[in-house]
Amino acid sequence: IKAYLLQKYPRPFFGRDLLLRVAGSQALLRLMPRFDIGSAVDPVANAELTISMLKGEDGNQRELLYELVQWIKSTHQPDVIHVTNGLHGEDIFLEGLPQPYQNEALAIIRERAADVDRFLAISAYYGDMFSKWVWLDPSKIDVVYPGVALDDYRTLTPDSSDSRPLTIGFLARFVPEKGLHLLVNAFIRLCRSGEFPNLRLIAGGYVSRAYKTYVDGIRRTIRENRLEERIKLLGTLERADKLNFFRQIDIFSVPAPYREPKGISILEALASGVPVVQPDHGAYPEWVNATQGGLLHRPHDSADLAEKLATLLRDADLRKRLGQQGRQGVFEKFSSERMAQSTLEAMRRLIKSVNHENLA
Asked: Residue 39's pLDDT is what?
């Protein structure tokens, strides 16, 4: 909030200091989750703010930077400073910046990347893609897989009651880049085939006012195909509701048209023993190959998605085998403990190399 206000009001005026103090107060920050700020990450609306913040000491937010540097210098004097927004999916925002802001942002990133000793990428796919895009030295990138807090999943058991119909699940923000529209179209194909008479689809995820038109279009498609009783759009799920959601589904899919660099909900589904059907791009092939927990479909293709879903719907033994493999793969490779350990190892290697250079 304070960074935004410094961009909007870069020059002093009467009452500006008070406004900035209020904007930076913890009380206000605690209130923020109560508000829908889905449009706050609009790259078009925030293009100038983005450039200013990337400029660092030359931008309008320089006083926040100096405040941070002074606090680090005087309070902790750490061996490593870890800025958490590393290579985790910044391309979708950067691609949304209008010109000339996009080219300017990329030029600044390329220049400032020299100030960073190591980058942590959330997947090998994203590390490779982003390094080529902004000309990063690949040798400066460590891949640290995302981790899931698995305690709640250790004892999670599926709802195996005979009365529960075969169910496909979706859990992600209701935005075009997550592909709910493609899944609904695939579901319609499956229903029209007549092969799965009791099939249902349940979808959970954050719904922002910024994407009301998109969600309204999906609801209209559901009504026009008379599938209101078989497709349920649940909206945001709290932790307990999410765990129960995974108990109620047989297959999970987030058919994102966007080349997703992570996809935590896919790992959560696999941790629940639910096989996945994901597009064959982005980090998804990496996750599916690492866990052996699902199938891949052609990106942007609801017909091929429907066929891959049908392959699993027809074969309970295949669903069980992939679900078990996926669960084991997540517990071995994608736990929060494994993520923390990999991050620490990357930091220790960095400290060791810096100390070696200093001695030399």
From this structure: 47
